[in-house]
Write a structure and sequence with these properties.
The protein is an all-alpha fold. It is built from 41 helices and no strands. Helix 2 crosses helix 3 and helix 37 packs antiparallel against helix 38. The chain is globular and about 80 Å long. The termini are far apart. The relative contact order is 0.02.
Length: 755
C-alpha cells in the first residue's frame, strides 16, 4: 500500500491512537445510550405500566427491542411476586403474557432470557397447568429449547413433590438415545443439583459423559455439589477426564476451587490444603483468578493470616495478584482487629511492585490509627506524596478522629497544621470533628465561623456535631434549636432529629428525647436505628423494660436489632426477669437459626452475665438453664456450664453444683481439667470437703498451673473454726476477696491453656 509506506512509525502510532480513541468513543456512546434507554424503559414501565411504556417509546420513534421487552416482562413478574393480592398478581401475569405474545408477533425468537423468568414464577407458585401452557408455546417456537425446558420441568415436579414425574424424567435422561442426550442429561443434572436430590443426582451422574457438557457454569455446579456430598472419587475422576480435553487449565483450577470450598464443616486452612493437594495431584498451576478467589474466601471468614499465606504462595509461583485483593485483606484486618498486620501487607505490596492507590493508603492509615500508631499513619502520607499522589482531606480526617478518640486535643490541632503544610483544605467532616470535640461553646462557635469563612457549606455531619456538642455542654435548648435551621435539607431532617434524640438520652434528658421521638412517630417518620438503640440502653437504666421491648420491635429489620436485643437480655438476667429473657432468647434463636456458632456464643454470654452477678442464690441460673433446654430447644455448651459452675463457687452452693455437674454428662460433654477444678472449688467453697477430696483425686496435677490453682483454692476456702468468729470475719473479708480474685485470675490462665 503506497500510502502506508509514506507514514512514519510515529505517525502510525498516532493514527492507531486516534483510531482507538474514535472507536472507544463510539462504543461508549452506543453503550451508554443503550443502558440509558434501558433505564428509561424500567422507570416508564414502573410509573405508567408496561403497556403504556411500549406505546410511549413507539411514539418517540424508538423501536422496542428484545432487551426492552424482557425488561418489561421482568417488571410485571416482579410486581406479581411482590403482592399478596391474587387479582393484582393475575393482572400482572396477564400483562406479561401480552408482552410475550407481542414479542412473538414481531418475529423475535423466544430465548431462555425471555421464558426463563416466566417459568420460574409458575414453578415457585406450583402452577402446573399454566406451566405446560407456556411450555407448549415455547417448544413450538424454539425447538432448540427442549433440553432447557426439561430443566424447568424437573424443577416444577420437585417443587410440587411429584415423585412419579421426577423418576420418569430421570429414566428419560438415562435411557434417551437422541443426539442431544448429553445436553438433556446436563440440564436434568443441574435441576437435581440445585434442588439437593442426591439419589437421583447420583443415578444421572453415573451415566453422563462429563466432557460433553456445554456450559462451564454447569460444570462448576456439579463440582460444588460433589464437594457438598463429599464425593471426592467422582470429583477426581471428572477432573482427570476434563484435563484430557481442551477445556484449559484455568477452568480445571476453577473446578478444584469450587469443589474445595463446598466441602461442609471444613476449616479455612483445610480448604486451602485441599485446594493445594488437588492442584498438585493433577499437575495444574492455580491461576491468579483462583488465588484471588481463595484470598477472598479467607477474608470472608476473617482468616487474615491464611489469606497472606495464599498471597505468598501465589507470588512464589510468579503469579501477581491485583491490588483489590490486598484491599480485601486490609478490610478483613480491620474487621478482625488484626491491625498490626498492616506493615506486613504494605511490605508485600512494595516488594512485588504493585502501585498503591489513594484508597490503598486510606485503608492502611485507618489500621495504623486504630492501633494508635500515628507516626506510621503520617509516614504513609509521606510515601503517598513521594509517589506523586496528593493526599486527600479524608486521610487527615482519619488521623484527626483518631486523636480525638484518644482525647489528645493538642495532637488533633497539629493535624490542621499538617494539612496546611500539605496544601490540603479542611472539609465539612473536618469541621464536624472539631465542633463535636469542642470543650466550650467559644471554641465551637469559632470553628463554625472558620468553616463559613473558608466557604465550606454545613452538611448533615456538621449539624449533628453541633447537636452533640451542645448536648455534651449541657445546653439542651440550643441543641434542640439546631434542627430548626432552614439550611437542613428535608431528606436529612429526620436523621438529624434522630441524633438529637440520642444526644438528649445519652446526657440524661430522657423525657426530652421521648418527646421528640413521639413527634417523629406522629409525623409517620422512622427514628434512626442507632437512636432507638440509645433509647433502649437508657430505658434500662430507668428500669422500664416494657418500653424497651416496644422499641425493640421497631428495630426488627435493622442490623442493630441483635445488639439492642442482647442489651435487654443482659438487663433481664441481671435483674432476674426470667420470662422476658427467655422470650428474647427465643427470638435470637430464630434469627440465628442457621448460624450455630454465633448462637452458641450469644447463649454462652448470657450465662457469663449471670456468673458475673456473683449471686448468692442459684435458682435463677437453674431456671434459665431449664428454659434454654426445654422451651428454646438449645443444648447448653461446655462454656455455659462452666459459667454456671463458677456461679456456684460464688454462691457456695454444693447442691446446685452437683446438678450442673450432671448436666455435662447429659449434654454429652466429657469432664476436663477445667471442669474438675471448678467443681473442686465449688465444693470447697460450700464446705463439703469430703466430696471435694474425691474430685481432687481425679485431677491430674502434672501441670504447674493446675497445682497453683488448687493451692490458691485451698488457701481461700479452707479456714479454721477460729476464723469463723464474728469479730474476725470483718477483718478477713477484704483478704478473702483478694485471695478469691487471685484464684479466679489463675483459673483464667488455666482456661486459656486448655483451649
Amino acid at each position: 500500500m503506497p500510502w502506508l509506506e509514506k507514514m512514519t512509525n510515529n505517525s502510525i502510532a498516532e493514527w492507531r491512537k486516534e483510531f482507538s480513541r474514535d472507536r472507544k468513543q463510539k462504543w461508549v456512546f452506543k453503550s451508554t445510550q443503550t443502558n440509558r434507554f434501558g433505564r428509561m424503559v424500567n422507570v416508564c414501565a414502573d410509573k405508567l405500566g408496561p403497556d403504556a411504556a411500549v406505546e410511549v417509546f413507539g411514539k418517540l420513534g424508538q423501536e422496542t427491542g428484545l432487551k426492552e421487552y424482557n425488561s418489561l416482562i421482568s417488571i410485571c413478574i416482579k410486581k406479581a411476586r411482590g403482592t399478596t393480592d391474587e387479582d393484582v398478581s393475575t393482572e400482572q401475569i396477564y400483562r406479561a403474557y401480552q408482552i410475550f405474545i407481542s414479542l412473538r408477533e414481531k418475529g423475535f425468537k423466544i430465548e431462555e432470557e425471555t421464558y426463563g423468568q416466566f417459568l420460574m414464577y409458575l414453578i415457585d407458585f406450583g402452577m402446573v397447568e399454566e406451566f405446560f401452557f407456556f411450555h407448549e408455546i415455547i417448544k413450538a417456537d424454539n425447538s432448540d429449547s427442549l433440553p432447557r425446558l426439561a430443566y424447568y420441568e424437573m424443577l416444577l415436579w420437585i417443587r410440587v413433590n411429584n415423585e412419579v414425574k421426577i423418576q420418569e424424567l430421570c429414566r428419560s435422561a438415562v435411557a434417551d438415545d437422541a443426539e442431544d442426550k448429553s445436553h438433556f442429561q446436563e440440564c436434568i443434572l443441574m435441576a437435581l443439583c440445585e434442588s439437593g436430590r442426591k439419589e437421583e443426582f447420583m443415578i444421572v451422574l453415573r451415566t453422563l459423559d462429563i466432557t460433553k457438557f456445554t456450559s462451564v457454569a454447569s460444570l462448576e455446579g456439579v463440582f460444588r455439589y460433589l464437594g457438598k456430598l463429599l464425593l471426592e472419587p467422582f470429583a477426581e475422576r471428572y477432573l482427570l477426564a476434563l484435563k484430557k480435553t481442551d477445556i484449559g487449565a484455568d477452568n480445571i483450577s476453577n473446578f478444584i476451587y469450587e469443589y474445595a470450598i463446598s466441602i461442609p464443616n471444613l476449616a479455612v486452612e483445610d480448604v486451602i490444603l485441599k485446594f493445594q493437594t488437588l492442584h498438585s495431584k493433577f499437575e495444574v498451576l492455580p491461576t491468579s483468578a483462583q488465588y484471588e478467589k481463595l484470598v477472598s474466601y479467607c477474608c470472608e471468614f476473617l482468616k487474615v493470616h491464611d489469606a497472606l499465606n495464599v498471597v505468598d504462595e501465589a507470588f512464589k509461583f510468579g503469579i501477581t495478584l491485583s491490588l483489590e485483593t490486598f484491599h480485601l485483606i486490609l478490610d478483613a484486618c480491620d474487621q478482625s482487629y488484626e491491625f498490626n498486620l498492616v506493615n506486613q501487607i504494605n511490605s508485600r505490596i512494595t516488594h512485588h511492585n504493585l502501585e498503591p492507590k489513594v484508597e490503598t493508603f486510606r485503608k492502611m492509615i485507618i489500621l495504623h490509627v486504630k492501633m494508635k500508631d500515628f507516626e506510621g499513619a503520617y509516614e504513609l502520607i509521606n510515601d503517598l506524596q513521594k509517589k506523586g499522589l496528593k493526599p486527600s482531606t479524608s486521610l487527615f480526617n482519619i488521623i484527626l478522629s483518631g486523636y480525638f478518640r484518644e482525647k489528645n486535643k493538642y495532637r488533633a490541632m497539629d493535624v490542621l497544621k499538617q494539612m496546611e503544610d500539605a496544601d490540603v483544605k479542611p472539609d465539612s467532616v473536618t469541621y464536624s470533628y472539631l465542633i463535636a470535640n469542642s470543650h466550650c461553646e467559644k471554641d465551637m462557635i469559632k470553628f463554625y465561623e472558620d468553616m463559613g469563612e473558608s466557604g465550606v457549606a454545613p452538611t448533615k455531619q456538621v449539624f449533628m456535631a453541633l447537636i452533640n456538642a451542645y448536648a455534651s455542654l449541657g445546653q439542651f435548648e440550643k441543641a434542640k434549636k439546631v434542627v430548626l435551621d432552614e439550611r437542613i435539607p428535608v431528606k436529612n431532617l429526620n436523621e438529624i432529629k434522630s441524633v438529637l434524640v440520642a444526644a438528649l438520652a445519652s446526657n440524661g434528658q430522657l423525657s426530652g428525647a421521648l418527646k421528640i421521638y413521639e413527634e417523629i412517630k406522629k409525623a409517620e417518620c422512622g427514628l434512626d436505628p442507632k437512636a432507638i438503640r440509645c433509647l433502649i440502653e437508657h430505658f434500662q437504666s430507668e428500669g422500664e423494660i416494657d418500653r424497651s421491648l416496644q422499641l425493640l420491635e421497631e428495630l426488627s429489620d435493622s442490623r442493630y436489632w441483635t445488639d439492642a436485643c442482647f442489651r435487654i437480655i443482659s438487663h433481664c438476667v441481671r435483674h432476674e426477669n426470667l420470662r422476658s429473657a427467655v422470650d428474647l432468647l427465643k427470638q435470637l434463636k430464630d434469627k440465628f437459626n442457621h448460624a450455630e456458632i454465633a448462637l452458641e456464643v450469644l447463649f454462652d454470654e448470657v450465662f457469663c452475665i449471670f456468673a458475673e452477678k456473683e449471686s448468692t442464690d442459684m435458682q435463677f441460673g437453674l431456671d434459665l438453664l431449664q428454659a434454654v433446654k426445654e422451651e428454646i430447644g438449645v443444648r447448653p455448651s461446655r462454656k455455659s456450664l462452666d459459667f454456671l459452675l463458677s456461679a456456684c463457687v460464688y454462691a457456695k452452693d454444693a447442691k446446685t453444683a452437683i446438678v450442673i455437674w450432671e448436666e455435662y454428662e447429659t449434654a454429652g460433654l466429657p469432664y476436663n481439667v477445667l471442669s474438675f477444678v471448678r467443681m473442686y472449688q465449688a465444693l470447697l467453697a460450700a464446705g463439703d470437703r469430703k466430696s471435694a477430696a474425691k474430685i481432687l483425686n481425679k485431677i491430674r496435677q502434672d501441670d504447674p498451673h493446675v497445682r497453683c490453682v488448687i493451692k490458691a483454692s485451698e488457701e481461700t476456702f479452707i479456714r479454721s473454726a477460729s476464723l469463723e468468729k464474728k469479730q474476725k470475719k470483718k477483718k478477713k473479708k477484704k483478704k478473702k476477696k483478694k485471695a478469691f480474685e487471685s484464684t479466679v485470675g489463675q483459673l483464667d490462665v488455666l482456661e486459656a491453656k486448655t483451649k
